[in-house]
Amino acid sequence: MNDMSKLGQEIVEARTVQDYIDETPQWRDGTPVSSVPMTSMQWRIWGLAAAGKFFEGLVVFMTGVAMPLMSEEFGMGSFEHGLVGAASLFGILIGALTLGGLADHFGRKLMFIAEMVIFIFFLVLLSVASSFAWVVVFLFGVGLALGCDYPTAHLVISESIPSSSRGRLVLAAFAFQAVGALTGVAIGYLILTLSPEIGAWRLMYASAIVPGIIVLVGRFFVTESSHWLAAVGRLPEAEEQIRKLLRRRPDYPKQIKLRARHGHAHHKKERTIRSLFSAKNRRATILASVPWFLQDLSTYGIGIFTPTILAAALGEVRVAHHHDVTDIIANDMLAAKGAGFIDLLLLAGMIAAVLLADRVGRIPLQILGFIGCAVGLLVASFSVDYDGPMQIFLIYVGFMLFNFMTNLGPNAQTYLLAGEVFPTHVRGLGAGFAAAAAKVGAVLTAFFFPILLMDLGTQALLYGLAGASVLGAWVTWRFGIETKGMKLEDVGH
């Protein structure tokens, strides 16, 4: 009888990975503490994942400042401008699609390390590139690493933190993309100030090498995802890793016994692109992919070419001779300063998203953000009908509103949803596919933006992007799946 009681007790005590992560301590009278305290390992994982998003913003948006200098050094036309703008984004597309899904096969930690090795390798090569062709190749390589980071960074955070704070902590890490964008523009401006020469763009990219190495070293000392280990049936290893993840003083929980909530068959399930379009996953795939695609049409086009648009608007007044090296650098500095001011609203929007995602929910914020983006783009489009100060005012107001609303809504929420709406066994694949679909939009915009800007003009282009934002709001409403407060183990079941 005693043995049977012990066996029953063990069955009761066996819990899922998320149950342990979500457990809160109690006061002496049994009242639970209102929030789950984070351990040092959880914060380490969060910080190292946030660094990956920082590097993405840094490199992609720094390209906008570096491009005029590259253009002068390599004699680039509109086609070459499009290639440079699209190279890293196309790399992100391929990296998210091919490397991101490998986290479902080989684990989150291995890919978390591998992506940083790839990033540093190509960044070093980019800083010493000897020709335009190599610049494009090395930017593509950098993009491969950043593409892998899209699903992997999300997974290492979301699978190691409490459900109640998942939204704000994932988005707080994602906010470092905006910090990186702002830093990239600032570094570009600083380097142009200290080294006003055409080759200064190389120093801009090289500035990220040493910080990248520091982050790489740190990633060797994080835990593997216990969610993933449990999903593939490796329960003893999952118990060991969650024990390390939740190590704190005083020790609790003192004993960990995991059960596979849905059995040990996840590793036998299909993990292919086709599985994302099964009846079970189709809605999640549409929600994760289509709005993100539509959002990236605008975000990367506006983000990368904001300095170019501002240079066109401001440069005519401030700089008369655009082919003199001194004037090119002066114009680039002026545009960089203006772009940096506008990019502050990216950070403000992300802060708002962090504060509201776990309160208001993902879907309402995404719909509201898409509508706000459309309004901002329309305001910016009106600038074409004016000259002088009014033109500059409308460009700034429109782009600032767009930047705030995109990070409050679709830029933040699409990233968050893509890592939440898929079951564990295809979460990396699904998030990677969604990021790849998004980067199809980014690549199309980055490549065709300078060409269409010349052929159609600013106003027609902004009208088209505003229409894409309205469509994004509708798709989000039609296929919405709210994940606020949901346990990851409940997704897809």
Show unreliable segments: 4-12, 262-267, 315-323
- Estimated helix fraction: over 70%
Which shape, going by the Cα principal axes? globular
Radius of gyration, whole Å? 23 Å
Total helical elements: 19
Helix-strand pattern: HHHHHHHHHHHHHHHHHHH
The largest sheet is: none
Give the terminus-to-terminus CA distance.
Answer: 36 Å
| Strand content bin | under 5%
Subunit arrangement of the protein: single chain
Number of DSSP strand runs? 0
Q: Helix- and strand-based class?
A: mainly alpha
How confident overall, as mean pLDDT? 82
How would you explain this protein's 3D organization?
By secondary structure, the protein is mainly α. Helix content is 74%, strand content 0%. It is built from 19 helices and no strands. It has helices at residues 2-13, 17-22, 40-74, 78-99, 103-106, 108-127, 132-158, 166-194, 200-206, 209-219, 226-231, 235-245, 282-318, 325-360, 362-381, 389-408, 410-418, 427-455, 458-479. It is globular and about 70 Å long. Residues 4-12, 262-267 and 315-323 have low confidence and may be disordered.
